[in-house]
Amino acid sequence: MIYNLIGTILMVFFFGFCIFIHEFGHLLMARAMRLFVQSFSIGFGPVLWKKVYRGIEYRLSLIPFGGYVMIPQLEPTDHPTKKDGSPLPSATPFERIMTAFAGPLANIISAFLISFVVFAIGDYREKVDPNGVEVGEVPQVFKFNGKEYEVPESKAGLRAGDIITAVNGTKITRGQRQLIREIIFAPHGKVVLDILRDGKPLQISYKLKPHPDPRFRGVGMPFFKCVRKTIIYELVAVDPAQNEPSPAARAGLKKDDVVVEVNGQRVISPGWLVEYLHNLNPDPEKKPYQAALFTIKRKANGAWRELQVKVEPAAATVKDPKTGAE
User: What is the pTM of this model?
Assistant: First the structure.
């Protein structure tokens, strides 16, 4: 329940922030068009604080959800006036259009800037190796819609365990996202990878091939998988209403555990682990389920310990909240 409450609060804050940016865009354009701005408020409802600065009354209101800007010259009247009744010149159609358009434009610009920052920083929880990215898996062929496609990285000689240190001369210091970006935007699809193999520097060259999935619209994508630390960030209850723990929690897995292996196979990424566990028990009707032996690293008292935890899968059941029937 606490997660639902936090999610609701964050959603309200997000929409409020979008509204604030929207109204702030109107304010900036109105000032640029030399229109009279009567007031600008953060939030709605009773005014908690206000201050007049350069002719505009700035307000902080009780309900912290978005805000508003009052521009009398945009009102649907031929005779706009100030709060004291003194007349104002009517806004021209151009001024009206530009001021109205500035709101959604501010939202678009802010969304672009936020996306850029998030993409540049990446996942704040995952520490990246500034010395390169390790290759986890290089399939010989890529299967899609029943067909097999040649993997250019495999043909060029890239192997699992190679550490990619640079792409076309650009050093990879910011992790997997930077690596993928550099490969996708390689000029003319020509990729030169600087790698370390068993500590020895090598160079591999190949040309990107269009991804067969039509959703990628013919863009050349890397077909190999990179190693990413698989950290347990949350253990979700099977039935939150009954506070029933998941099989992983019952087995002893904990938040912030790092999953190293499962059934003796190296875990190269969170996505790989999800796919492996799904393939381990693909049919929920078929019992008994196959257990998974996790090898994990856990930090306790400042030191890392390696442990093994056996997880017995269980089928999730959905109950009718009124009748209790499954």
Answer: 0.57
